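Example record

The entry below shows one chain as it appears in the dataset: sequence first, then structure tokens.
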Amino acid sequence: MKEIIKKQEQVFQGDFLKVDRVLVELPNGREGIRDIVRHPGAVAVLAINDEDEILLEYQYRTALDEVILEIPAGKVDPAEDRTAAAHRELEEETGFSARSMEYLGDVALAAGYSDEKISLYLARGLSEGQEHRDEDEFLEWEFVPRSQVLEWIRTNQIQDSKTICAMFYLSLREF
């Protein structure tokens, strides 16, 4: 089933994304072309307060042209430890720090065309502090009861894959 990479060339370089065109040898001996989005990786944080509420963000996403509900997340800096990145992103976007940051698992977001993986974390023991958002980052956040988050997933009001996967990982822990 494995495809063998014969040749690859970068066809686009953005601020942090790049796209490679890859020539592969297919399992049947024929050749195929794969366009692959290269991503540095990301983290997402399922932050739960002492009242068992989930910290959700409302953020406009240009690619979808809509405001979506999602958990705090962001890309990992070069050579940055993923757990440290999870702490950093939570604090930058919401001002909260977490006493504990527990790894839940990784999610491959679009394996058909991208190598991006998001590492999901569970944050507890939250302390409110100061937000330090990037200049181009605009969002609002609120704590939402877990049952409401699950209802919004069920009714398709939350479509964000990292949020859905983090909630699923949480339910597996408690199963």
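Notes for this example: The chain has three helices and ten strands. The radius of gyration is 18 Å.
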